[in-house]
Amino acid sequence: MENADVTAVRRFNRFYTQTIGALDTRFLGTDASLPEARLLFEIATREPVTASVLQDVLGMDAGYLSRMIARFQGRGWVVRAVRADDARARDLRLTEAGRDAFRIVDERQRAAVSDLLGTVAGTSRRDLVEALTRARLLLDPASGGAFHIRSFRTGEPALIAARQSVLYAESHGWGRELEVIEGEVIAAFLRDFDPAREQCWVAEIDGVMAGAVFVTDEGDRLARLRLLHVEPFARRRGIGEALVARCVGFAREAGYTALTLWTHSVLQSARRIYAAQGFRCVETAMHDRFGVPLQGETWRLELAA
User: Fold this and answer.
1) Domain ranges of the chain
2) Thinking of the domain 3-119, which architecture would CATH place it in?
3) Residue 196 φ/ψ, nearest 5 degrees
4) Which of 75, 125, 238, 241 has its CA 20 to 30 A from that of 87?
5) Rounded CA gap, 275 and 280, in Å?
6) Residues of the signal sequence (predicted)?
7) Exposure of 46 by Cβ count < 10 A (0-12 exposed, 13-18 middle, 19+ buried)?
8) Separation of first and last alpha carbons in the chain
9) What is the number of alpha carbons within 13 Å of residue 197 lying toward its C-beta?
10) Are the C-beta atoms of 70 and 62 separated by less than 8 Å?
11) Would you say 185 and 162 are in contact if contact means Cβ atoms under 8 Å apart?
């Protein structure tokens, strides 16, 4: 681990804990500390809930959690009730006083976050929210919701090409020539874009780009699938399969007779996706355009005439 990376994360942690008042005994001027405010939230959004479930969700020490629950009981915020289906288990529920305490904490948190976001406007705010969401997804990919696929927005094609260049340089050592090819593809796509014949789709998870793909018009009723990629944090969700299927459906509806693509024998995951959609490898050829010897492959899917 690079020391500069550790230093950067620790610097942000110090900034953020101070910014949100995590060090205050009375969080946002309420009767709860930050850990207590979080526990209140989990009880309010999950009740009835057992202490064991809360321990699993929060990852808290059992003794520490038990002492917080005891304080809540002392304040009249929660009650325990024996479950009808299991006499050994006791559910926690908020009392009216507990709901009032939660409402105050929740309202003040929302107001504080709103005030914080109010200092950042427009594109900068979108960048901030996306960066925070991306950080969560990178650290905990399973926390992401379901993906959805949409058409591209202004500025995204170039971002997609740049991202692919970074990912392939890291995973396969492919160099500048790949970036040149990707740049040429994007320039031609934007210059000649015809939405009835071409398209770029972006897969999103919680508003963060998780993958993308292009379909371009090659002439003579032939379409080409280009620049498929899925972000590492978003893999094994079926995103690649969904993006390729979207390309196939679009090409059929647009009246193309075939859909082709160029890939490489080392990209096994992508090749499995193409094969599952009915593509067949029709030509292979060695090249070193990316700085290393590679076997390039042309794949083709015949579509209904």
Assistant:
1) 3-119, 147-302
2) Orthogonal Bundle (1.10)
3) -80, -20
4) 75
5) 6
6) none
7) middle
8) 55
9) 16
10) no
11) no
Give me the DSSP letters along 219-285: ETTEEEEEEEEE-GGGTTSSHHHHHHHHHHHHHHHTT-SEEEEEEETT-HHHHHHHHHTT-EEEEEE
The verdict on domain 147-302 having CATH code 3.40.630.30 is yes
Per DSSP, the chain holds a count of helices (H) and strands (E) of: 10, 10
Place of tokens 């299991």: 86
pTM of the model: 0.89
